[in-house]
Design goal:
about 280 residues; mainly alpha; globular
Length: about 280
């Protein structure tokens, strides 16, 4: 199943690249405030809120690791689709997802190792070699995105035809993996639900409210406010599963992500309804 996970993540990033053009980045450069606020909410505010909740809910060291891996992961293809349905700024959404993916290639292994040390997990039993992890993450995220962009640049009609079916395939593969984890770790999940469920739900709504407040305080246009909230609220579950299952080789660490992958559809639905009512 690890091979399926790697293929799925690379395919998601390639699909993202199919919808991305240089002009999307140009639009963000011309109006950088929304991008800066969005990256702040996703890359700094979300991990800070996540770590605070792990302390408040007294999560075990292993569950804190799994919980923080979700918080430190970049945005994913799902956030781009939700932003589109909510009538947000699609160019900003895709650009934020790509920027967060670029940043996490470097930040994620460093911060995960810091979290590991802070919760007292022995580095000999579990660790991420920083340089190797950066190379690995770049190979399954940045390279597929670049390839997707090249296909869009030189074969635009093919990119348009591939985008929708590949998005559907990615969603199906992620659903299959979630079912697989649920089936293989049913006992651990049942035991962990009471501990992990509440902080996951608290994370969903806390980061949505705080990112909304940040965007409003920055006086950002309404449709971009919803995009920023969506990007901060919906992380790349496939990336988090890859870290726990492939790099750390501990499927149990993915239990918080399993709850998150299901719970994130609640704020997603709310944001779509609010976005469509506000941005008619």
């Amino acid at each position: 199943m690890n091979y399926l996970l790697l293929i799925m993540l690379a395919l998601m990033m390639f699909t993202m690249g199919l919808a991305l053009a240089i002009k999307d980045f140009a639009a963000v450069v011309q109006a950088p405030k929304a991008a800066i606020v969005g990256i702040f909410c996703q890359m700094m505010l979300l991990p800070a809120v996540g770590y605070a909740l792990s302390v408040i809910f007294a999560l075990s060291p292993a569950m804190t690791m799994g919980f923080m891996i979700v918080c430190l992961s970049p945005g994913g293809v799902m956030s781009n689709y939700v932003s589109y349905l909510a009538r947000g700024d699609s160019a900003l959404s895709i650009s934020l997802t790509v920027l967060s993916s670029l940043i996490t290639v470097f930040s994620l292994p460093i911060l995960i190792n810091w979290v590991q040390q802070s919760v007292g997990i022995d580095a000999t039993s579990m660790s991420l070699p920083v340089k190797q992890t950066m190379v690995f993450l770049a190979s399954i995220t940045l390279i597929p995105v670049t390839l997707g962009m090249l296909v869009r640049r030189f074969f635009g009609s093919i990119a348009d035809k591939l985008s929708s079916p590949l998005s559907a395939l990615c969603s199906a593969l992620l659903a299959i993996y979630i079912v697989y984890i649920w089936a293989s770790k049913a006992d651990d999940i049942a035991v962990s639900f009471a501990a992990v469920g509440p902080p996951v739900i608290a994370l969903m709504f806390t980061i949505s409210i705080l990112s909304f407040a940040c965007a409003k305080l920055a006086n950002i246009a309404e449709h971009r406010v919803f995009t920023i909230v969506i990007e901060a609220s919906l992380q790349n579950s496939a990336m988090a599963f890859t870290i726990t299952s492939v790099l750390l080789q501990d499927v149990s660490l993915g239990i918080p992500n399993l709850f998150y992958s299901i719970a994130m559809f609640v704020p997603a639905f709310i944001l779509i309804m609010l976005g469509r009512s506000k941005n008619r």
